[in-house]
């Protein structure tokens, strides 16, 4: 006798015919209760915690949502920071919405102005200790430019200023004179 065909079963969802009997099973998102006949919803949010932020259990399934300032990724499980600050935010450069608050930050080479949470100002890299430059530093908007004093040039590391030995390179002293290189200066005849 096929109990599933003649409706003599008490399964709430799926009936599986077996020899001399039957078993019940459930569609995805449900599980058999202790009576082995009734299917009950699985609360995926509690059992599996599948969502990155907000999980809403639905009948037979679940949906994920994101907190304000985040948007759901294509996998419908995880969230990424969105930029709700695009319209009408108070930040002078970068705005992120984090944990329900508008947070301002600055681009590289800038920092929030002292006492302000919204305005960015240029960082004078030349005044930092240690200086980013070996000898001369010129502050630019958002960065700085390093250079060497007269009589020096950048070494192979591109940062250290090495003395130019004018006695060897320029040969400005007479051949018969004792030549001495003066750091940062020209060849001196002795």
Keywords:
190 residues, mainly beta, Laminin, 4 domains, two-stranded antiparallel sheet, two-stranded antiparallel ribbon, 2 helices, 4% helix, 37% strand, elongated, EGF-like domain
Order of helices and strands: EEEEHEEEEEEEEEEEEHEE
* Percent strand: 35-45%
Query: What is the second-level CATH architecture of the largest domain?
Result: Ribbon
Q: For the record, what CATH class of the largest domain applies?
A: Mainly Beta
Low-confidence stretches: none
Question: Residue-averaged pLDDT, rounded?
Answer: 82
Radius of gyration: 37 Å
CATH fold-level name of the largest domain: Laminin
Assign a percent range to the helix content: under 10%
Q: What is the number of independent domains?
A: 4
Instruction: Provide a count of the helices.
Output: 2
Total strands: the figure is 18
Give the termini separation: 121 Å
Order of strands in the sheet with most strands:
1-2
Shape: elongated
What profile does the largest beta sheet have? 2 strands, antiparallel
Structure classification: mainly beta
